[in-house]
Amino acid sequence: MENAQIARALETIATLMELKDETYYRVLGYRRAAESVAAVGRPAYEIQDLRELPHVGGTIAQVIKDLAEDRTPKVLTDLLEEIPSGLVEVTRLPGVGPRTAGRLWRELGITSVEDLAELEEGTLASLKGFGRKSEERILRAARTYNSRERRMLLDEAAALGEHLLRFVRSHPACVEAEIAGSLRRQKETIGDLDLVAASRQGKALADAFAEAPFVDEVVAHGPRKVFIKCRGVEVDLRIVRPEAFGSLLHHFTGGQAHNIALRERAVKIGLNISEYGLAKLGTGEYEPVGTEDKVYERLGLQYIPPELREDTGEISAAQKGELPALVELGDLRGDLHVHTNWSDGKGTIETMAEAAIEPGYEYLVFCDHSQSLKVANGLSPGRLVKKLEAVRAADEKYPEIRLLCGSEVDILKDGTMDYEDDLLAELDFVVASVHTSFRMGEEAMTERIVRAMNNPYVRTIAHPTGRILNRRDPYEVDVSRLILEAKATNTALELNSAPERLDLAVPYMREAVDAGVRITIDTDAHDEVGLGFVKFGISQARRAWVEKESVINCLPLAEFEEYLKSGK
DNA sequence: GCCGTTTTCGGCCCGACTGTTTTCAGTCG
Fold this sequence. Notes:
By secondary structure, the chain is of the alpha/beta class. The chain has 23 helices and 17 strands.
């Protein structure tokens, strides 16, 4: 079983335990362990001592081991004997938690969302503690439930977030406002949006937000908090007075696990943390904190950038003053993987070059598709030679930027490259990737890519797992092995910045960089606008603790050319 | 369940809002 599935299983165990009314901290233990497993790139079955993962002790280590080796752990078997598995889904309905789901099961025999949806009106309202409103809300949730929830890609979430943020900021009662939550942490996909604002007239701002034109539904509405739905997305706005804005921003940037760990730590040094500030333990007298870095300072920690706030080791690193100097957008000197209308891109060599001059890039590598990828108008060897000449000519025209000609060469089914080595040798840079025969099985796919890595001209493997978020799972491939081979062959791994890809994914990327593998952060842009998506590649790299020293396209032009000249 | 700058046992985050309540439990983030 893979790490993502193991994490889901641990999550299920936690929810089943909640339904059983198990001790809160036991449940929390499984939840935290689930996050730890999800965040690690190395497959669990390869990890010698699972207890090295945060929040994994002897008991859960054994549970993970069972799951990794495709056995059902006893704790899960026992739980499933007692509690119908369909109830887990019932707890995912908005407004329905474990207590409610448990009562529905015990008192009405409900064992699934479908059962609930078919319930007659009035049945629910007759239960003690339930009224007409509760019934209406729960039934509606059950009847409109869609198990395949679609999470927003980063670019859509960012666009919506900015739109809502502009509204909040433009209100006269707003002093300051920011996007918080998972969007600020730049998670790879976004479920809901969190906005925070500072105001002296919180209620006025809250009311205005609840009545804004983009609001489809008001879920909750108080003076400090408004919870709305907008285009099917849940949006939370929280408001405090300006003095406490740092505390609020910090509190709602999360993640949940990071906040809990931080508050536990604070208690140990005699402090409570909330969105209103810091208080001496137990006094409830919160002293507001205006900025986030002050929050960390008061806790004796280095400032932790939002992208790292997941409780995956950042707190102890910050305590020791050992946080990485994360790569920044401004560190990038070029893009090594963009397309043009020579294959399936929309931009021309010239328009793409001009778009790359804009952010101050020192170099740009055009990598159009190779011959066998006919659907993408892949270049025959003859056309590739012509394009090489065209790029050389364009390079003369733009002294501001070095234009180079590469290719995104298909890795054929047997692991050979889609052009002869003689031709690859003519190119400035070779990106290799898989676009066909995705379902050949893990072993064959791994061998296929490893063979490509051993080609002396292949510099980087583009979108190494082939996933398309919300649409296509990654193909089966042994990423740990790819990381080892990348290191051995001095081949880079690409972090593809396209919001629907973000491939290689963060947990793997962190493993790769830890193993000393260098990476390329590219856009795979097919038009000028696409170049701008590099900010998402950068944020994913930051989430993976990447420093600029690991990134090939952070090299200044002279050093980059040196790297090209020296071969692999 | 996990974990250790008080602890290997006894601790273990914090608050807003809602609905159905006469004082609070449940849900959510």
